[in-house]
Amino acid sequence: WLYLRHQKERQRRSRRLRDLRALALGQGDFELRDTSGTPRRKADFLGRWVLLYFGFTHCPDVCPEELEKLSRAVELLESDPALPPLQPLFVTVDPERDDAAALSRYLRDFHPRLLGLTGSPEQVRAAAAAFRVYVSAGPRDQDGDYVVDHSVLTFLLDPDGVFRDCYGRSRTAEEVARSVRGHMDSYETL
């Protein structure tokens, strides 16, 4: 019975991974710059688990809440030294205002290893499109300020760079950490 149960679980995981690949989320590469100006590609993060969030520094409430949750989930996972390393990433959807200096100032309030990425509008648009992230800048007010409407999801990529899961606003940091741990525990390299 245990053997059959184990086989059924392996088949379920295999089907899920096949379905995720069919979605083609995050399978493309991106070319952005981190806060020190270093060019970064998706391939730079191969070999590590990645939690990736798209947002912007002028966001009044959603992005700070999601980054706080992401930071807490990473802290929970880091508390177990048996787990593999995890890299938190933040990709701006507002490259007009979010240059390297703005990202650096903004991200220092969150997890110390949270890496911010920015680039040209075309590069950012391509990175968002690879994950099918919706992005739309709203109208400017009299001060020239605006809000950027965007998908609110945190993506989990495995060490092979394959999309494994995503987490919306309704998930708590504890739920995200538990899910990531489950993916880490059941991970088999491609």
Describe this structure in words.
There is one protein chain. The protein is of the alpha+beta class and 190 residues long. The protein has a single domain, classed as 3-Layer(aba) Sandwich (Glutaredoxin). 37% of the residues lie in helices and 21% in strands. The chain is built from 5 helices and 9 strands; from the N terminus they run αβββαβαβαββββα. The protein has helices at 2-23, 62-78, 100-107, 121-130, 173-186, and strands spanning 31-34, 39-41, 49-55, 86-92, 115-118, 135-137, 148-150, 154-157, 163-167. The chain has a 7-stranded mixed β-sheet with strand order 2-1-5-4-3-8-9. A two-stranded antiparallel sheet has the order 6-7. Helix 2 crosses helix 5 (173-186). The longest helix is centred in the N-terminal third of the chain and has 22 residues, at 2-23.
What topology emerges from the helices and strands here?
Elements: H1 2-23, E1 31-34, E2 39-41, E3 49-55, H2 62-78, E4 86-92, H3 100-107, E5 115-118, H4 121-130, E6 135-137, E7 148-150, E8 154-157, E9 163-167, H5 173-186
